[in-house]
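[Discussion] Sanity-checking designs against the backbone

I'm trying to build intuition for which residues belong where. Below is a C-alpha cell string of 557 positions. I'd appreciate it if someone posts a full sequence so I can compare it with mine line by line.
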C-alpha cells in the first residue's frame, strides 16, 4: 500500500514538470502566454500542395506600352497600345519576336497621336487599326514586305507614304482630309503623281485622295481606265472632275459618295458608268471640248500672229510656248487669235493651244492640244553681186545665218515674177536681151510647220552687155577680102580690128557709126587674116560700153 502511494506521487510530479516545460516553450516561441492550447493553429504536415495552372500560349502578353499575341514562335501581332506620345514608332521586335501584323483597333480613339511609323517587318494591317484617332495626320510605312494598304475612319489623316513593295491600295473610307498618297519611286506596280495613285504604266487611275487641295481635277489623256472607288467620297475640295475621251472603262463605285461635278469629254459615257456613281447625288455632264484642229500664222521681223478656228463649246484658249526647259504657259485668252511681240528676227518658235471651258468650279483645259511652229521673218541678205555678158546675168549673195533657202524674183514690166527657190547663194538668168536693164530680188526663207516664211528682200538692177556683132568675111579675088557684120543692140559705133598670120596684136582698121560692107585690098596668096568687130556705145563723146567680139579668120588662096 505504501509502495502504491509512492508510485502515484512520482507520476503526479512528472506530469507537473511536463506541463511546465511546454508552457515555457510556448511562451518563448510566441512571446505571449496562453492557457488555451487550442488557440494556436498548426498545419498538418501531411496536406498536399495545390497544383500550378499551365501557361496559355495564345494569351495576350503585355510588353511596355504594347500588348501582343503570338502568331508563331518567332512572330507576333500587336493588339493594343496605351502610349500617349504624338509620334508612335511601331517596333520591329518585342521580346525578341518580330512584329508582322497590326490588329483591328490597335490604336483606337487616341487623341494624342499625330504620326505613325510602321516598320518594314509588318505584312498585314487591319484597315481600322487607327480608327478614331482624330488628330492622326501622317502614316509612313518603311520599306519591307507590305503588299496591300488601307485605312479607314481617320478623319484628320493628310499624308500616307508607302514603300516599293505595295501592290494595291484600298478605299481609304472616311478619310476626308487625305491630301496625298506617296508611292516609292522604285515601285514596279504603282506610282503617284501629285499624290494621286496610278498603275505603273499610268493607264489606270487607282485612287484620288478625297481631301486633295484642288478645286478641279483634269484626268490626263494617257488614262484609259478608272478603278473601283477611285474618286469615292470626293467633293470636299474638288468641285469638278474632268474625264477625257481616252477613258473607256470605269470601275464599280468609282465615284461613290462623290459630290463633285463630273464632266465627260467623250460623246459616249464610258462603259461601267452605271455602276460608278452611287451613294450621294453626283452631277454627270457631257462636254465635247477638243483642241483646235488648225493653226495659221502671219509674221514680221519681231512679231507672230497666231490664229486658229474656233472650237464649239470652248470659252477660251490657253496658249503655250516651248523653250529649252519645256512648255511654258503664256496666256489664256477668249479670242481665237493672239499677237506675240518682241521676238527675235529670223527665229523659229513652237507654240501649243488648248481649248478652255469655264464652269462654276473653274476653267477646265482640254487634255489634247495642237502644236504649231512659226517663225519671224528673216533678215535680207546684206549684198548682191553680179556678172554678165550680152545674154546672161549671174547674181550672187551672202548667206544669212539660220536661213533654209532663198526665193529669187525678177521684174517683168511693173510686176515681180517668182523665178524659183534655192538653198544655194547664186542664180543665173539666160537668153536675155543685150544692153537691157534687168532687176532681180532675193528673199531669205525659213521653213516652219511646213510653211515657208519669207523675209525682207534685197534688189539689184543689172544691164546686159552690148550685143556682139557676127562677122562674115569672103575672099573676092587673089588680093582682096570683103567682110561685113551684123548690127548689135545698143551699139552706136563699131570698131574694126585685124591681125595677120596669127599675130598677138590687133590693129584698129577703123571706127564706123553703122554697119558697112568693107574690102581689105592688097593681100597676097598664103597669108592668114583675122577680122573682129566690137560694138561700142558713145555718149557725150565718151565710150560708155563695149561688147565682146567673135573674130573670123580667112586664108588667102
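Best answer:
Here's mine. Compare freely.
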Amino acid at each position: 500500500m505504501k509502495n502504491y502511494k509512492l508510485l502515484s506521487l512520482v507520476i503526479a510530479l512528472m506530469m507537473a514538470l511536463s506541463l511546465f516545460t511546454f508552457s515555457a516553450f510556448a511562451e518563448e516561441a510566441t512571446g505571449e502566454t496562453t492557457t488555451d492550447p487550442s488557440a494556436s493553429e498548426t498545419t498538418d504536415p501531411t496536406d498536399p500542395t495545390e497544383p500550378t495552372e499551365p501557361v496559355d500560349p495564345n494569351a495576350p502578353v503585355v510588353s511596355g506600352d504594347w500588348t501582343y499575341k503570338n502568331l508563331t514562335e518567332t512572330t507576333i501581332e500587336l493588339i493594343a497600345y496605351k502610349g500617349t506620345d504624338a509620334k508612335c514608332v511601331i517596333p520591329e521586335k518585342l521580346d525578341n519576336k518580330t512584329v508582322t501584323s497590326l490588329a483591328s483597333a490597335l490604336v483606337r480613339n487616341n487623341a494624342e497621336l499625330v504620326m505613325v511609323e510602321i516598320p518594314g517587318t509588318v505584312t498585314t494591317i487591319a484597315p481600322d487599326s487607327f480608327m478614331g484617332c482624330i488628330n492622326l495626320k501622317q502614316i509612313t510605312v518603311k520599306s519591307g514586305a507590305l503588299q496591300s494598304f488601307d485605312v479607314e475612319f481617320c478623319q484628320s489623316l493628310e499624308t500616307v507614304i508607302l514603300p516599293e513593295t505595295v501592290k494595291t491600295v484600298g478605299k481609304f473610307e472616311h478619310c476626308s482630309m487625305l491630301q496625298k498618297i506617296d508611292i516609292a519611286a522604285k515601285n514596279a506596280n504603282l506610282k503617284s503623281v501629285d499624290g494621286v495613285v496610278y498603275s505603273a504604266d499610268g493607264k489606270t487611275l487607282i485612287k484620288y485622295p478625297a481631301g486633295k487641295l484642288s478645286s478641279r481635277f483634269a484626268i490626263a489623256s494617257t488614262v484609259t481606265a478608272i478603278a473601283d472607288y477611285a474618286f469615292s467620297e470626293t467633293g470636299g475640295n474638288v468641285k469638278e472632275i474632268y474625264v477625257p475621251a481616252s477613258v473607256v472603262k470605269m470601275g464599280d463605285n468609282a465615284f461613290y459618295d462623290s459630290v463633285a461635278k463630273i464632266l465627260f469629254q467623250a460623246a459616249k459615257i464610258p462603259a461601267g458608268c452605271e455602276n460608278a456613281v452611287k451613294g450621294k447625288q453626283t452631277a454627270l455632264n457631257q462636254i465635247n471640248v477638243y483642241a483646235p484642229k488648225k493653226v495659221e500664222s502671219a509674221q514680221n521681223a519681231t512679231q507672230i500672229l497666231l490664229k486658229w478656228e474656233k472650237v464649239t463649246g470652248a470659252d477660251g484658249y490657253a496658249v503655250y510656248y516651248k523653250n529649252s526647259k519645256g512648255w511654258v504657259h503664256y496666256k489664256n485668252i477668249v479670242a481665237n487669235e493672239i499677237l506675240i511681240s518682241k521676238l527675235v528676227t529670223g527665229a523659229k518658235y513652237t507654240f501649243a493651244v488648248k481649248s478652255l471651258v469655264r464652269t462654276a468650279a473653274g476653267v477646265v483645259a482640254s487634255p489634247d492640244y495642237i502644236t504649231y511652229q512659226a517663225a519671224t521673218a528673216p533678215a535680207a541678205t546684206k549684198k548682191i553681186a553680179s556678172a554678165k555678158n550680152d545674154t546672161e546675168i549671174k547674181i550672187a549673195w551672202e548667206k544669212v545665218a539660220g536661213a533654209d533657202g532663198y526665193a529669187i524674183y525678177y521684174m517683168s514690166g511693173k510686176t515681180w515674177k517668182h523665178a524659183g527657190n534655192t538653198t544655194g547663194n547664186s542664180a543665173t538668168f539666160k537668153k536675155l536681151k543685150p544692153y537691157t536693164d534687168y532687176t532681180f530680188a532675193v528673199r531669205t526663207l525659213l521653213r516652219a510647220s511646213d510653211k515657208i516664211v519669207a523675209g525682207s528682200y534685197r534688189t539689184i538692177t543689172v544691164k546686159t552687155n552690148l550685143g556682139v556683132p557676127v562677122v562674115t568675111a569672103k575672099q573676092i579675088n587673089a588680093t582682096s577680102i570683103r567682110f561685113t557684120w551684123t548690127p548689135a543692140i545698143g551699139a552706136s559705133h563699131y570698131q574694126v580690128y585685124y591681125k595677120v598670120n596669127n599675130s598677138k596684136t590687133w590693129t584698129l582698121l577703123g571706127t564706123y557709126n553703122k554697119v558697112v560692107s568693107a574690102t581689105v585690098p592688097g593681100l597676097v596668096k598664103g597669108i592668114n587674116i583675122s577680122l573682129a568687130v566690137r560694138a561700142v556705145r558713145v555718149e557725150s563723146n565718151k565710150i560708155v560700153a563695149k561688147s565682146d567680139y567673135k573674130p573670123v579668120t580667112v586664108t588667102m588662096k
